[in-house]
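task queued by scheduler; priority normal; single chain, no ligands, no partner chains; default sampling; output format set to structure tokens
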Amino acid sequence: MAGTLAACGSSDSGQGSGDSKTVTLVSHDSWAASKDVIAAFEKQSGYKVAVLKDGDAGQAVNKAILTKDNPQGDVFFGVDNTLLSRALDNGLFQSYETKGSGQIEAEYRVDQDKHRVTPVDTGDICVNYDKKYFADHKLQPPRSFGDLVKPQYKNLLVTENASASSPGLGFLLGTAAAYGDGGWEGYWKKLKANGVKVVDGWEQAYNEEFSGSAGGKKAKGDRPLVVSYASSPPAEVVYADPKPSTAPTGVAEGTCFRQVEYAGLLANAKNTKGGKAFLDFLISKRFQEDMPLNMFVYPVTEGAKVPPEFVKYGPQAKDPETMDPAKIADHRDQWVKSWTSLVLK
């Protein structure tokens, strides 16, 4: 997928010396930050920020690996725990321990011996449901992975391709965590028989196929269940005009898988000094507290406040599925291969 470049200020491309006045961030399409927060970083650091968005997280990581010898930028943000080992094994990042890293909650820290990545945010990948659809059909929304294979939910769920999409992969890993190495394939056979629809990425699933989102309503989406995030309901409230008193969508809490996103200094970055300054900024209190209502994720640093909309409409799952990064590294590629032949063929 072709990337789109959004530059703030200087037209300096960042190519050439390590002291360039532009620092280039490479990320997925969901990157967002308040203009005044970026402006504050630019004023304080002396660097201009350019952002290169490169598609879904899975696509962005794959492209970064392919271009690692001559990277498109200095910092990469958006590799998550489902894809982290792929990035590390391919030498995508160089070592840098961010200033203030001691403030990062211990449960999110990884790679502590080499410091190739810094945790930036966390969120839960979960099935979302369209409240109106279930009320109109006098049907209880599903609550668990097990519910999704029941006859009353036939042809209602849309998910993303696990081989190309981060939430799609997270959902697959959630089922592997829930049903184990020996049970997840049998579960997906039932899900396929129950009419699950698979599309390429989150944008298509959530904003075109899902009947509960603002975009899906416009696109006349007809699937009232979608794999998205626990923080998607507050997004529906925040962006609505007028704002509803309750979120139009809900979360099936028994379908959640915890995701953590990381950033790192690209191995062959041309502006390493600017890249390090930007990584420090990503875990600063100002950025961490600005981030939730821009990217609809949770902060990872101690003491960062969460907006009231999150508390009310998008609380973190109480007991999400999780998986050790080493297990993901050992099994991910084989699971995705098996999933592809099972679900897409």
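post-processing summary
- The radius of gyration is 20 Å.
- The longest strand covers residues 249-266.
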